[in-house]
């Protein structure tokens, strides 16, 4: 028992004290390669890509930053508490995997925020994320669960009179620049996001390559289709900011599988097409017929591509065999050791359906709680604006935007130089 109390046994070996230097170096290498990149993706990518509406810049950046740091610690607390219940007499040792899973959990929260951003109070966002962090778990459920969770909350919190202030949610020239910078960060770090928990070596390399090919294919498809669906042949910035990333969302489940380069390109082609058409036709239909007010279009970037990712993973897993994977089959699918002969494709598909159902049911229940008039919800006139919760001086808004842009470009250059070393 004393050895357990001293954390003598951990994920790297039983005698940590004899190899402290090796463990520390391995931790630092894993941390900087994965966890640091995931944090940059969450902080810069998800935060700035949601700043397309110009009158809520402060609300978006501050709430997202606060949520990232708060719910990373909340996830770690929940996971440690769970281990304490299972092993009450053993000290729980946190590893880099815990930090990576915490970042995944924070990403799921940020995705759900995109459906109700600008129409909810800070307290409502806090309550919404509190329940979601308890439910969310696992890499495949990040986008599917988070997206449909946010859409269900948005449906319950529907505001019939919000159409009067809806033009405030439209983007302008400088807000699109900020959102596009966030898209570029997400584009750069999404291969790290999809490969963070893969086994180091062949599986990890395969996840990076599949994600990269999918992103490239999805970007080209989005640019072409965005011009085709416009009456005057122009490219829509909303499509470039979001649909270019839909392929990376969909390939996440099957990233470390034998999807092959041409398979990844096909996934990017299909998801780029579906996501672009979704922003053009499905998002207006959701608001008109189903009363789902999707502020940031998370249905076309996260929810639907996430569910498609489950289907792609099911098809790829069902086709897995020793002839394709060789000796790496059991490394890629460890469950085969415990349950030989099980239907991998069926279980993958079941996981996607469960994620969708949990997101819809959980979001509906939490939305009912948030609809209780005690959380300080904003009025329809103050939606999509910072003035309800911030002291805003309209004379200096453009100056503040320029300062933010200057600081962000400076940080971008510093990070680029660090990565080039």
From TrEMBL:
GO terms for cellular component: plasma membrane. It is found in: Membrane. It is a multi-pass membrane protein. One of its GO terms (molecular function) is ammonium channel activity. SUPFAM superfamilies: Ammonium transporter (SSF111352). GO terms for biological process: ammonium homeostasis. Residues 92-389 form the Ammonium transporter AmtB-like domain. The keyword Membrane applies. The chain crosses the membrane at residues 61-78, 99-117, 123-151, 172-190, 210-229, 262-282, 302-325, 346-370, 399-420. Signal peptide: none annotated. Its main location: membrane. Pfam families: Ammonium_transp (PF00909). Keywords: Membrane, Transmembrane, Transmembrane helix. The keyword Transmembrane helix applies. PANTHER family: AMMONIUM TRANSPORTER, RH50, ISOFORM D. Belongs to the ammonium transporter (TC 2.A.49) family. Rh subfamily. This is Rh family, B glycoprotein (gene/pseudogene). It comes from Eptatretus burgeri (Inshore hagfish). The lineage of its organism: Eukaryota, Metazoa, Chordata, Craniata, Vertebrata.
